[in-house]
Every structure is written in C-alpha cells, then in structure tokens.
Design a protein that fits this description.
With 224 residues, this protein is mostly helical. Helices cover 65% and strands 6% of the residues.
C-alpha cells in the first residue's frame, strides 16, 4: 500500500484536528522511510520482479527490520517518543505509525514477519491474488477515508479539497501503468535496489512536505 497510507493519515488528522500534521502524516509513512533507507544501504533486500503487480515491480524479499509485527511496534513507540512533551500527540503519532503495518496486512504477499527472521509471515496477498485490481481496491479504501476526512473538516469550516486532489494524483502516478518502479526494476543491481530504497523513502517525505503546505493554506483560508 502506498497512497492508502496517506489516506489513513488524513483521516486521523480529521479525527484529531488539534494534533499537528507532521506526527500523523509522516508517522503514517515512517515504516516505509525506515524500509527505504535500510534497502538503500543493503541491510534489507528487495528483488526486481516485473510481474509483481500492481505498482511495486519488486518482491520484498527481506523487510523484517521495519515491517515485522515486533519491529513495527518498536518503531511506532520510538516515533511516539519524539513527541512525549504532549502525551496526546505522542499517542496519536504512535497509532498512525502502527496503523501502517495493520493496513499493509491485506495487501502484502506473506512477507510481514512476526519478528526478524521468524518462520511465520503475515499478509493476505491481495497484490499477488488481485494484481491490478488491488490498486483499484486501494483507491476505494482511500476514497472512503478521504470522504470521511473531507466531511469532518468541512464541519469546522475547512475545505481540504486540494489535499484530496493531491492524494488522487499520487494514486494516478502510482498506477500499474505509470509507476516509476517498473523502470527502476529494469536497472542492474545494486542500482535497482538502491534507487528503489531512495524512491520509497522520498515517496513519503516529499508528499508530506506538500501536504503540510496544503494544510497550512486551508487552515488559513478557514479563518478568513
């Protein structure tokens, strides 16, 4: 899941409007930022596979240090600990981070370990079973969360239509036909893995910066 994580973050922001954006939205992608970094430096491993639909084009061969149940809990607590000056913010930040792992379970192809090097893996495998239709499923999942967020913000006079439009663009960009990962998967190693990791990490950092700007804009307009 990719743009679906942003939808989860936006829905959480709508529910906890008093909590700053960064702990929530960046938290929603924190596990993938760690994952991209670890893949880029060679600690975790991905394998190019042009048949891996809908948009990743890599098999997640070993991602236990951030996408196992145990490590997801550890990283979530660590992310929350950055905001311990306010326990409410810390709680929501940790929740946002751990929900990343939870919503990954239906999509991933049994590559989510219980703990690093465990023999048992989680993942319902919708990516593998549904292929392109799993991308459509993620769009539907995101649309429900974004509709909730839109209505919630609208009750307080804030219009987040541009945030929703931006996430829609992310969904279109990460389609089975336009995903940059397909071109990356065609590169020789280690370049393919390194660039994969860089794109995964920046794919959450850069959109978070853009969403932060869009939220500041919509909040400002709501007070005009």
């Amino acid at each position: 899941m990719y743009f679906g994580h942003f939808a989860v973050g936006v829905a959480l922001k709508a529910k906890y409007r008093d909590v700053p954006l960064i702990p929530i939205i960046l938290g929603a992608g924190f596990l993938d930022i760690i994952n991209g970094t670890l893949v880029a430096v060679g600690i975790e491993k991905v394998t190019a596979n042009l048949n891996a639909l809908p948009y990743l084009y890599f098999d997640l061969t070993f991602i236990d240090w951030d996408h196992s149940l145990l490590m997801a809990a550890v990283w979530s607590l660590l992310w929350g600990a950055f905001f311990l000056k306010d326990k409410r913010i810390a709680m929501v930040a940790a929740l946002s981070c751990f929900l990343h792992f939870i919503v990954d379970i239906p999509m991933h192809n049994a590559d989510l370990a219980l703990y690093p090097y465990a023999q048992h893996y989680l993942g319902f495998g919708l990516w593998g079973k549904w292929g392109i239709w799993s991308w459509v499923f993620e769009i539907g999942f995101s649309a429900i969360l974004l509709a909730y967020a839109y209505q919630k913000h609208l009750k307080f006079g804030e219009n987040i239509k541009w945030q929703l439009c931006f996430i829609a663009l992310l969904a279109l960009q990460m389609s089975p036909w336009t995903s940059p990962m397909k071109q990356v998967a065609m590169l020789a190693e280690p370049y393919a893995s390194v660039l994969h990791g860089i794109l995964v990490a920046t794919g959450f950092i850069v959109p978070t910066i853009i969403l932060a700007w869009l939220y500041k804009r919509s909040e400002r307009l709501s007070h005009v």
